[in-house]
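Could you join me in thinking about how sequence relates to backbone shape in a protein? We need material for that, and I hope you will provide a protein of your own picking. Label the sequence line and the structure token line clearly, so we can match residues to local backbone shapes. Would you write everything just below, so we can both look at the same thing?
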Amino acid sequence: MNGKRVTKAAIDKALADPVTDALSQHGITLDELARRLRRDLDRKETKILKVKGAVFDWAEYLEREAARLNGQDLPAPAGEKAYRILASSSDETVIAIDVDAISTQVEAREDAQKLLGLYKERLELSGPGGGPINYDEIPADERELLLAVTRDYERRLNEKNAKRGKAAGKKGRGKRKDRPGARKGR
């Protein structure tokens, strides 16, 4: 070779990704990302609601009254309720409800799917210099595959649009003649 010795440290340095190294130095590692992603997949948010009147848990009340009338010990309070009462009066009650943070959970799911390689990158095909592809230059077997894929895509698009009540392949709608203010002669 050229007389230089290749060491493991030199190979590691050559293969090192400066972005990964910089992120790791600031605590952004794969384990940390995975932990935060897992937390975001289960993320909840609290909604505050104001309701008219007092909020009363009839099931809990009846259970306590039955125990009292039967001379039994009062039952222990039930586990976590679906809501928390923040303020209450005879006119209105303010309650807090924990619900799934759907937008955060969807973003976390999409991020996880991207990291797992489940999303395909968009692929655009073009000819030399970004121009159109010359159909005659495509080999016959690839041409048949391209036509089959195109026909299948068109069929699925037509089925999808038929479900929506739209016709596929229309490039625009003409102006309605019966619409007020429509110009004539166009």
About this structure: The mean pLDDT is 77.
